[in-house]
Design a protein that fits this description.
The chain is mainly alpha-helical. The protein has one domain. The protein is 89% helix and 0% strand. InterPro entries: CCDC13 (IPR038929).
């Protein structure tokens, strides 16, 4: 009959056990570092998403302001064109009147 002691080898102080413990410790440290890095990157992505949302909102406001300014300039140009046409008409009428008065 074999005892339980012979079925379960003991590695408590063996070099192999120490190597395994060292490796487990290293893996735990790597795992923790990976978790910290993941959390840091997740936070960074969140910050970038917020910045992007702000930039998109700002772009929409700038587009609206530009559209409004463009409409204003188009209206100014129409009024300028209309005024120029009226001035031209008055000038031509005065020129015709002057020619008629000379005859």
């Amino acid at each position: 009959m074999t005892s339980a002691r012979t079925l379960v080898p003991r590695f408590s102080d063996s070099p192999e056990q120490k190597a395994w413990q060292t490796q487990v410790t290293e893996f735990k440290a790597l795992w923790q570092a990976a978790e910290v890095e993941r959390d840091r990157l997740t936070e960074f992505v969140t910050v970038l998403q917020k910045r992007l949302a702000i930039q998109l909102e700002e772009n929409e406001m700038l587009k609206a302001a530009l559209g409004s300014a463009l409409q204003g300039k188009e209206e100014d140009f129409r009024m300028y064109h209309e005024t120029l046409g009226q001035v031209k008409g008055v000038f031509l009428q005065a020129l015709r009147q002057q020619k008629a008065d000379k005859r």
